[in-house]
Structures are given as C-alpha cells and as structure tokens.
Amino acid sequence: MDDTVRQHKYVLTEDQMPTTWYNIMADLPSPPPPPLHPGRMDPVGPDDLAPLFPMDLIMQEVSAERYIDIPGGVLDVYRQWRPSPLFRAHNLERALGTPARIYYKYEGVSPAGSHKPNTSVPQAYYNKKEGTKKLTTETGAGQWGTALSYACALFGLECEVWQVGASYDAKPYRRLMIETFGAKVHRSPSEVTASGRAFLADPKNYSGSLGIAISEAVEVAATDPDTRYALGSVLNHVLLHQTIIGQEALLQLAMAGDTPTLIVGCTGGGSNFAGLSFPFIREKLAGKMSPRILAAEPASCPSLTRGVYAYDFGDTAGMTPLMKMHTLGHDFIPDPIHAGGLRYHGMAPLISHLYETGMMDAESVPQTECFAAAVQFARTEGIVPAPEPTHAIALAIREALKAKETGEETVILTALCGHGHFDLAAYDQYLRGEMVDENFTEERLQAALATLPQVANA
Ligand SMILES: *Cc1c(COP(=O)(O)O)cnc(C)c1O
Fold first, then answer.
1. Side-chain half-sphere of 258: how many Cα atoms within 13 Å?
2. Which residue ranges form the domains of the chain, and what is each CATH number?
3. 0.90 surpassed by pTM
4. Angle, vertex CA 112, rays to CA 297 and CA 381, nearest 5
C-alpha cells in the first residue's frame, strides 16, 4: 500500500481573501451586444432597470472598471465561510489510474451549501442600503431561494420566492430550509400573480420552469415600489460577484505550485462557471497561462451546444429585457432532470459572447454518466456533490481518462459548486438503477425556437 503523505487541501487565511471582484468587461477584446428594452427594442438604460434593481447593482451591470471593491459589510459576511478550500483529488486520481492532477474548489461550505451566497449577500446588502423593503425571486432546485432567504434574514429584508412546481413537489426539504431562514415560498405557477394564473390555464405548464417563476417574481417587484427583484445567475453583476471563487483559486493553485491546463465548470445560467474561470481568462489574455476553458451542460438542456445565439427574453411571459444569448427559446420546458439549477432556457450573455468568440468550449453530458461520476467522486473524495456540478465532474473524469491514454500533461481545475445533501432522492433513483436519460429532440427545440422575438439587425 502506498502511504505517501499527500497534501489534499489548500487553505487561505482570512487576510488573504480578495477584497475586490474582477470585472472581465475591462479585458474583453470586444463587448457583448447590449440588452434591449422589450417594447422599444433599443438598448436599456439604467432608468429602465431602476424598478427592479438598486442603482449600485445597475452600475455594476454596465461597469467597465476592472476591479470593484467588495463593501466591508459584505466582506464581514463572506468571512463566515470564505476563503473556501481548494482540494487536490488524490484519491479520485488514484481510482482512475490517471497521471492527470485534478483540483476542485469547494463552495458547499457556505450556509446555503452552494456558491449562491457569494451574490445573494451583496444583492441584499445593496438593496438594504437603498431602502428596499422586500426582495422577490425564483428558485429551481431551491439553492438560490435558500441563499437569498439567508441574506435577507441577515440584512432585515422580507423575501418572497417562487419555486418551480416540479422542484417544489420533489424537494420539500429545500423549501423548508428557505422557510426556516424566513422567506415565503410559492409553488410556481401560482395563483397570486396575473402571469401565474395565465400559465395555469394551460396544463402543460403545471410543472413550471425557471422562466415562468421569473415572470411571477418580476411582476410582483415591478408593481410595488418598495419591492425589488433579485436574480441568482445570468446577469453581469451576478457573474462579477462570483469571481471571488476564481481569484481565491488562483492563489491556492499557486500555493500548490501548479498551473491548470483545463478549467471545467457546469453551466445553468453561467455564474459559478464564470466565477471560477474569469480570473483565469484574465491571466490567459495576459499570456501567463493557457488553460482550455470548458462548460459542462446537461444533454437535456443544452443551450450552448444546441441552442441558437439570438436575442431572447430571460423569462417565459416576455417581461424582462431581451438579451443576446445562447437560448433554447423562452418557451422551452426542459425535461424534469435532477439538476434543477441547470434547467434554464438561456445562458449568461457574457458566457454566450465568450463562446461565440471562440474563447471557450462546451460539451453536454447525459445525467446517468453524471451520477456514475458523482458516486465515484463521493466514494473517493468524501463529498456528495449537488446534481449540477456532477456534469463538470463527469467531464473532468473523461479528460483524466484521456490523459491516461495520451500521457499528455493535464492539470484540471473544477468548481464543486455545491453539496447534494438535499438531493439524495436523485441518488436513490440512480442507485436503484431507475434513472433514465431523457431524449432531447430537434423537433421540440424547433417548436420552442419558433417563438423567439423578432429583432431587426440582430
Ligand atoms: C444554481 C446552481 C447552479 C447553476 O447556476 P449557475 O449560475 O450556472 O452557476 C449550479 N450548481 C449549483 C450548486 C447551483 O446552486
């Protein structure tokens, strides 16, 4: 038995925690196309967004400053679980028999069990500062609802959450955690909004979708001056807040004396992937390293690999600004796979732009391969991953096995963006051999794309 002493964990002190967020807009060779007003079809300005977001966040959304200071009140809360650990997956490497070195940055140590509090805390902070009384939001699997509910509790804000019907029914413990932190949860589509009542008129909408839940949360925020809306992914300011992950990981890999050749993360709306990869893309653009940047998406909701790059609504009712993004169509209702956080029809405009300009790649993975990877990961590394990051783990394993064939030097960095303690029913289904891979058909995709909004010159 090989009983070499190995370093598994790279830990930063609180003093080493970054105090700025990194804004990739400052370094992009070309800017992404602007969001458009859904009625006027011209670029949205700060005033258009003011009913939904506080001005500090709107300014971050359009900022081109390279570094944005993290407020002291946010750093104080971050210190509750940050800096988060970086692990070297020695045991997984040994089980795979691979020469590849695999590192994972673990965000499951936060109060919500995922990366989401990195942005829910600053969003609640800036809203409180501007006098907001209540925040509304959507949640899929429940991770974002948990994170926002916790942040609102800390800053004394009310919180109201629309949870996608299928997840509300399947994951009662997430709802209970959201309620424990103090928020009110509605099953979406709900009877309490006009858009929810309209969706309920068609039985096909009963299981809900993130796009429908967003419509409900936006409707309530837009019609109450004391209420604003918070989004857990997709927007520039959300991706910005998550860059604390990659900035820490850069320092931790330097401690390990290693440089990544591959960075892989799962993409729902793109925020954990952006958070990990953007600081490394900055280094790559500066010629300091050259990792391949790879997004992992579900085969049942493949917005990058199968969707089109077009202006589309962020929600299903068509109330949000139009964003130029990779989309399956705002009417697309993905199969009810277990990775609820990856069941979004669109993709962050920033990620879509990087993908279009050849700065990153994407691959899709079927869910049975994800859970096989997750079980192997749990049995070697001791962490049960959330269903979402299992997509990235599956691709990391594919690449580590390739390295075994080719002997090419491979250093993989991945984001383990959450734990799966509330997702054990999905593991149960997998372990009993009852999990199936849903079929993503071209026919359904074309039907959803037929309702894309028509935008001249786009
Ligand atoms: C919300 C969530 C995701 C998907 O969102 P991104 O914005 O793509 O990161 C992935 N993993 C976990 C654990 C989540 O909570």
1. 24
2. 9-16+72-113+237-449 (3.40.50.1100), 115-236 (3.40.50.1100)
3. yes
4. 65
